[in-house]
Design brief:
The protein has about 325 residues and is α/β, with parallel strands linked by helices. The protein folds into two domains: about 180 residues, Rossmann fold (3-Layer(aba) Sandwich), CATH 3.40.50; about 110 residues, no CATH class. It is built from twelve helices and eight strands. Strand 6 and strand 7 form a beta hairpin. Helix 1 crosses helix 2.
Length: about 325
Protein backbone atom coordinates (compact mmCIF):
# COMPACT_ATOMS: atom_id res chain seq x y z
CA UNK A 1 0.00 0.00 0.00
CA UNK A 2 1.36 3.39 -0.97
CA UNK A 3 1.01 6.32 1.41
CA UNK A 4 -2.20 8.19 0.51
CA UNK A 5 -2.24 11.80 -0.60
CA UNK A 6 -2.50 13.79 2.68
CA UNK A 7 -5.21 15.96 1.14
CA UNK A 8 -7.34 12.96 0.16
CA UNK A 9 -7.34 10.89 3.38
CA UNK A 10 -10.78 9.46 4.10
CA UNK A 11 -10.32 7.11 7.05
CA UNK A 12 -8.55 7.88 10.33
CA UNK A 13 -8.07 5.67 13.38
CA UNK A 14 -7.75 7.08 16.91
CA UNK A 15 -6.07 4.72 19.38
CA UNK A 16 -7.06 5.95 22.83
CA UNK A 17 -10.17 8.04 23.45
CA UNK A 18 -9.53 9.93 26.68
CA UNK A 19 -9.48 13.71 26.92
CA UNK A 20 -6.94 14.12 24.10
CA UNK A 21 -7.80 11.09 21.99
CA UNK A 22 -11.52 11.83 22.24
CA UNK A 23 -10.80 15.43 21.30
CA UNK A 24 -9.02 14.22 18.18
CA UNK A 25 -12.03 12.02 17.37
CA UNK A 26 -14.25 15.12 17.53
CA UNK A 27 -11.81 17.13 15.39
CA UNK A 28 -11.57 14.46 12.70
CA UNK A 29 -15.33 13.85 12.60
CA UNK A 30 -15.96 17.59 12.26
CA UNK A 31 -13.46 17.65 9.39
CA UNK A 32 -15.46 15.07 7.46
CA UNK A 33 -13.35 11.94 8.02
CA UNK A 34 -14.52 8.42 8.70
CA UNK A 35 -13.15 7.74 12.17
CA UNK A 36 -12.55 4.44 13.92
CA UNK A 37 -11.97 4.81 17.65
CA UNK A 38 -10.26 2.18 19.78
CA UNK A 39 -10.19 1.91 23.56
CA UNK A 40 -10.15 -1.39 25.49
CA UNK A 41 -11.35 0.14 28.76
CA UNK A 42 -14.80 -0.60 30.16
CA UNK A 43 -17.33 2.20 29.51
CA UNK A 44 -14.91 3.87 27.07
CA UNK A 45 -17.62 4.18 24.42
CA UNK A 46 -19.96 5.97 26.83
CA UNK A 47 -17.20 8.36 27.91
CA UNK A 48 -16.39 9.17 24.28
CA UNK A 49 -20.04 9.85 23.46
CA UNK A 50 -20.27 12.25 26.42
CA UNK A 51 -17.20 14.10 25.19
CA UNK A 52 -18.73 14.36 21.72
CA UNK A 53 -21.98 15.63 23.25
CA UNK A 54 -19.98 18.51 24.75
CA UNK A 55 -17.78 19.18 21.74
CA UNK A 56 -20.21 18.87 18.83
CA UNK A 57 -22.33 22.00 19.47
CA UNK A 58 -19.12 24.05 19.64
CA UNK A 59 -17.84 22.50 16.43
CA UNK A 60 -21.15 23.33 14.77
CA UNK A 61 -20.66 26.96 15.80
CA UNK A 62 -17.15 26.96 14.33
CA UNK A 63 -18.46 25.37 11.14
CA UNK A 64 -18.47 21.71 10.15
CA UNK A 65 -16.68 20.58 7.01
CA UNK A 66 -18.74 19.02 4.17
CA UNK A 67 -19.72 15.47 5.09
CA UNK A 68 -19.03 15.96 8.80
CA UNK A 69 -21.20 13.66 10.90
CA UNK A 70 -21.07 11.78 14.18
CA UNK A 71 -22.53 8.92 12.17
CA UNK A 72 -19.09 8.45 10.60
CA UNK A 73 -17.76 7.15 13.94
CA UNK A 74 -17.10 3.44 14.46
CA UNK A 75 -15.98 2.20 17.88
CA UNK A 76 -14.15 -1.05 18.58
CA UNK A 77 -12.18 -2.72 21.34
CA UNK A 78 -10.18 -4.82 18.90
CA UNK A 79 -6.95 -3.11 17.81
CA UNK A 80 -6.48 -5.10 14.61
CA UNK A 81 -10.03 -4.26 13.55
CA UNK A 82 -9.49 -0.62 14.49
CA UNK A 83 -6.52 -0.07 12.16
CA UNK A 84 -7.89 -2.07 9.24
CA UNK A 85 -8.08 0.30 6.27
CA UNK A 86 -6.70 3.28 8.22
CA UNK A 87 -4.91 5.94 6.18
CA UNK A 88 -3.57 7.69 9.29
CA UNK A 89 -3.39 6.58 12.92
CA UNK A 90 -3.46 8.98 15.86
CA UNK A 91 -2.18 7.40 19.09
CA UNK A 92 -3.33 8.98 22.36
CA UNK A 93 -2.90 6.28 25.00
CA UNK A 94 -2.03 7.36 28.59
CA UNK A 95 1.29 9.12 29.14
CA UNK A 96 3.36 6.09 30.06
CA UNK A 97 6.51 5.53 28.00
CA UNK A 98 6.51 1.73 28.13
CA UNK A 99 2.82 1.65 27.18
CA UNK A 100 3.47 3.93 24.22
CA UNK A 101 6.49 1.89 23.11
CA UNK A 102 4.47 -1.31 23.26
CA UNK A 103 1.49 0.29 21.49
CA UNK A 104 3.73 1.52 18.70
CA UNK A 105 5.27 -1.93 18.34
CA UNK A 106 1.78 -3.42 17.94
CA UNK A 107 0.68 -0.74 15.47
CA UNK A 108 3.90 -1.18 13.52
CA UNK A 109 3.17 -4.88 13.13
CA UNK A 110 -0.49 -4.40 12.16
CA UNK A 111 -0.23 -1.51 9.69
CA UNK A 112 1.21 -1.38 6.18
CA UNK A 113 4.64 0.25 6.43
CA UNK A 114 3.59 3.43 4.57
CA UNK A 115 0.84 4.42 7.02
CA UNK A 116 1.90 7.27 9.33
CA UNK A 117 1.44 6.87 13.07
CA UNK A 118 1.23 10.08 15.11
CA UNK A 119 1.54 10.37 18.89
CA UNK A 120 -0.08 13.00 21.06
CA UNK A 121 2.58 12.48 23.76
CA UNK A 122 3.02 15.55 25.91
CA UNK A 123 6.73 15.08 26.45
CA UNK A 124 8.32 11.78 25.43
CA UNK A 125 10.66 12.10 22.43
CA UNK A 126 9.65 10.07 19.39
CA UNK A 127 13.18 8.65 19.41
CA UNK A 128 12.24 6.79 22.62
CA UNK A 129 8.78 5.74 21.43
CA UNK A 130 9.85 4.35 18.04
CA UNK A 131 12.70 2.19 19.34
CA UNK A 132 10.93 -1.18 18.88
CA UNK A 133 9.39 -0.42 15.49
CA UNK A 134 10.50 -2.19 12.33
CA UNK A 135 9.48 0.90 10.35
CA UNK A 136 10.31 3.83 12.66
CA UNK A 137 10.65 6.19 9.70
CA UNK A 138 6.84 6.58 9.55
CA UNK A 139 6.43 7.54 13.23
CA UNK A 140 6.00 11.14 14.35
CA UNK A 141 4.86 13.24 17.30
CA UNK A 142 1.59 15.12 16.72
CA UNK A 143 1.22 17.06 19.96
CA UNK A 144 -1.99 19.12 20.36
CA UNK A 145 -3.22 21.58 22.96
CA UNK A 146 -6.25 20.59 25.05
CA UNK A 147 -8.98 20.66 23.86
CA UNK A 148 -7.76 19.55 20.41
CA UNK A 149 -11.09 20.29 18.74
CA UNK A 150 -10.94 23.98 19.76
CA UNK A 151 -7.26 24.94 19.96
CA UNK A 152 -5.91 24.95 16.39
CA UNK A 153 -2.19 24.35 16.91
CA UNK A 154 -0.52 20.94 16.63
CA UNK A 155 3.23 20.39 16.95
CA UNK A 156 4.76 17.98 14.44
CA UNK A 157 8.24 16.65 15.23
CA UNK A 158 10.07 13.45 14.38
CA UNK A 159 12.56 11.20 16.12
CA UNK A 160 16.06 10.21 15.09
CA UNK A 161 14.74 7.62 12.60
CA UNK A 162 11.74 9.57 11.29
CA UNK A 163 11.79 10.24 7.55
CA UNK A 164 11.66 13.96 6.73
CA UNK A 165 9.09 13.15 4.06
CA UNK A 166 6.83 11.84 6.83
CA UNK A 167 7.06 15.20 8.61
CA UNK A 168 6.02 16.92 5.39
CA UNK A 169 3.17 14.47 4.89
CA UNK A 170 1.93 14.86 8.47
CA UNK A 171 2.05 18.65 8.31
CA UNK A 172 0.05 18.60 5.07
CA UNK A 173 -2.48 16.14 6.52
CA UNK A 174 -3.18 18.23 9.62
CA UNK A 175 -3.44 21.39 7.55
CA UNK A 176 -6.04 19.60 5.42
CA UNK A 177 -7.79 18.60 8.68
CA UNK A 178 -8.08 22.27 9.66
CA UNK A 179 -5.20 22.54 12.12
CA UNK A 180 -2.42 25.11 12.32
CA UNK A 181 0.84 23.17 12.17
CA UNK A 182 4.05 23.95 14.02
CA UNK A 183 6.62 21.82 12.17
CA UNK A 184 9.69 21.47 14.34
CA UNK A 185 13.17 20.75 13.02
CA UNK A 186 14.71 19.57 16.31
CA UNK A 187 13.50 17.08 18.89
CA UNK A 188 13.43 18.57 22.39
CA UNK A 189 11.93 17.04 25.53
CA UNK A 190 8.50 18.56 26.15
CA UNK A 191 8.42 20.20 22.71
CA UNK A 192 7.83 23.95 22.46
CA UNK A 193 4.38 24.33 23.99
CA UNK A 194 5.12 22.43 27.18
CA UNK A 195 8.61 23.92 27.51
CA UNK A 196 7.04 27.38 27.62
CA UNK A 197 4.13 26.30 29.81
CA UNK A 198 6.44 24.49 32.25
CA UNK A 199 8.75 27.51 32.57
CA UNK A 200 5.84 29.69 33.65
CA UNK A 201 4.50 27.01 35.99
CA UNK A 202 7.94 26.52 37.55
CA UNK A 203 8.21 30.23 38.33
CA UNK A 204 4.71 30.16 39.82
CA UNK A 205 5.63 27.26 42.11
CA UNK A 206 8.75 29.06 43.30
CA UNK A 207 6.77 32.21 44.14
CA UNK A 208 4.08 30.24 45.99
CA UNK A 209 6.68 28.25 47.94
CA UNK A 210 8.40 31.51 48.96
CA UNK A 211 5.06 33.12 49.97
CA UNK A 212 5.63 35.78 47.32
CA UNK A 213 2.29 35.20 45.58
CA UNK A 214 -0.85 33.09 45.88
CA UNK A 215 -2.50 30.81 43.34
CA UNK A 216 -5.24 33.38 42.81
CA UNK A 217 -2.77 36.20 42.24
CA UNK A 218 -0.81 34.18 39.71
CA UNK A 219 -3.89 33.04 37.81
CA UNK A 220 -5.19 36.61 37.67
CA UNK A 221 -1.86 37.76 36.23
CA UNK A 222 -2.57 35.46 33.31
CA UNK A 223 -6.34 35.79 32.86
CA UNK A 224 -6.51 39.56 33.37
CA UNK A 225 -3.13 40.61 31.97
CA UNK A 226 -0.69 38.39 30.10
CA UNK A 227 -3.29 36.00 28.72
CA UNK A 228 -5.28 38.81 27.15
CA UNK A 229 -2.21 40.01 25.26
CA UNK A 230 -1.03 36.52 24.36
CA UNK A 231 -4.40 35.77 22.79
CA UNK A 232 -3.50 38.12 19.95
CA UNK A 233 0.31 38.21 19.89
CA UNK A 234 3.19 36.33 21.43
CA UNK A 235 6.00 37.67 23.63
CA UNK A 236 8.26 38.89 20.83
CA UNK A 237 5.49 40.81 19.08
CA UNK A 238 4.47 42.20 22.49
CA UNK A 239 8.03 43.31 23.23
CA UNK A 240 8.18 44.87 19.75
CA UNK A 241 5.38 47.18 20.84
CA UNK A 242 7.09 47.69 24.20
CA UNK A 243 10.15 49.20 22.54
CA UNK A 244 8.40 52.37 21.40
CA UNK A 245 9.36 53.69 17.97
CA UNK A 246 12.51 51.57 18.06
CA UNK A 247 10.51 48.35 18.26
CA UNK A 248 11.97 45.00 19.29
CA UNK A 249 15.58 46.09 18.77
CA UNK A 250 15.21 48.97 21.20
CA UNK A 251 13.47 46.73 23.72
CA UNK A 252 16.25 44.13 23.58
CA UNK A 253 18.93 46.80 23.95
CA UNK A 254 17.17 48.09 27.04
CA UNK A 255 16.79 44.60 28.54
CA UNK A 256 20.40 43.76 27.77
CA UNK A 257 21.61 46.63 29.93
CA UNK A 258 19.52 45.71 32.96
CA UNK A 259 21.02 43.41 35.58
CA UNK A 260 17.70 42.02 36.80
CA UNK A 261 17.36 39.69 33.83
CA UNK A 262 18.98 36.62 35.41
CA UNK A 263 17.11 36.61 38.75
CA UNK A 264 13.83 36.34 36.82
CA UNK A 265 14.86 32.83 35.81
CA UNK A 266 14.82 30.61 38.90
CA UNK A 267 16.71 27.70 37.33
CA UNK A 268 19.87 28.68 35.48
CA UNK A 269 21.00 31.90 33.80
CA UNK A 270 19.73 33.28 30.53
CA UNK A 271 21.74 32.58 27.36
CA UNK A 272 24.61 34.96 26.68
CA UNK A 273 23.19 38.19 25.31
CA UNK A 274 25.40 38.35 22.21
CA UNK A 275 25.09 40.55 19.11
CA UNK A 276 24.59 37.37 17.08
CA UNK A 277 21.61 36.29 19.23
CA UNK A 278 20.13 39.78 19.01
CA UNK A 279 20.43 39.76 15.22
CA UNK A 280 18.92 36.28 14.91
CA UNK A 281 15.91 37.32 16.99
CA UNK A 282 15.39 40.47 14.93
CA UNK A 283 15.57 38.56 11.67
CA UNK A 284 13.18 35.83 12.80
CA UNK A 285 10.77 38.39 14.26
CA UNK A 286 10.17 39.85 10.80
CA UNK A 287 8.05 36.81 9.98
CA UNK A 288 5.85 37.59 12.99
CA UNK A 289 5.68 41.33 12.30
CA UNK A 290 4.81 40.52 8.68
CA UNK A 291 5.24 44.05 7.36
CA UNK A 292 2.83 45.64 9.81
CA UNK A 293 3.68 49.01 11.31
CA UNK A 294 3.72 49.48 15.08
CA UNK A 295 0.51 51.61 14.98
CA UNK A 296 -1.20 48.87 12.95
CA UNK A 297 -0.16 46.21 15.45
CA UNK A 298 -1.30 48.34 18.38
CA UNK A 299 -4.71 48.82 16.78
CA UNK A 300 -5.03 45.09 16.10
CA UNK A 301 -4.03 44.25 19.68
CA UNK A 302 -6.44 46.78 21.20
CA UNK A 303 -9.42 45.59 19.16
CA UNK A 304 -8.70 41.95 19.99
CA UNK A 305 -8.39 42.63 23.72
CA UNK A 306 -11.57 44.72 23.68
CA UNK A 307 -13.42 41.87 21.97
CA UNK A 308 -12.11 39.37 24.51
CA UNK A 309 -13.16 41.54 27.43
CA UNK A 310 -16.67 41.89 26.01
CA UNK A 311 -16.90 38.17 25.30
CA UNK A 312 -15.76 37.29 28.82
CA UNK A 313 -18.33 39.61 30.36
CA UNK A 314 -21.07 38.10 28.17
CA UNK A 315 -20.01 34.60 29.25
CA UNK A 316 -19.99 35.65 32.91
CA UNK A 317 -23.52 37.08 32.65
CA UNK A 318 -24.80 33.99 30.82
CA UNK A 319 -23.28 31.66 33.43
CA UNK A 320 -24.78 33.67 36.32
CA UNK A 321 -28.23 33.44 34.75
CA UNK A 322 -27.95 29.68 34.35
CA UNK A 323 -26.80 29.09 37.94
Amino acid sequence: MRRPNPNNVKRVTCVGTGTIGGGFVAQFLASGYNVTAYNPRKNARDCLERLLDQAWPLLEQIGLRPGASRGRLRFTQDLEEAVSGAEFVQESVPEDLELKVQTYKQLDELLPNDIVIGSSTAGFPMTDIQKRCRFPERTVVTHPVNPPYLIPLVEVVGGEKTDLAVLDWTAAFFQAAGKRVLRMEKEVFGFVINRLQSALFREALHMIAADQATVTQIDECITHALGLRWACMGPFATFHLGGGDGGLGAFMDMVGKVEWRAPYVTEGPLPDWTPALRERILQQAQEVIDGRTIPQMIEERNHTILGLLKLREESRIKASKQS
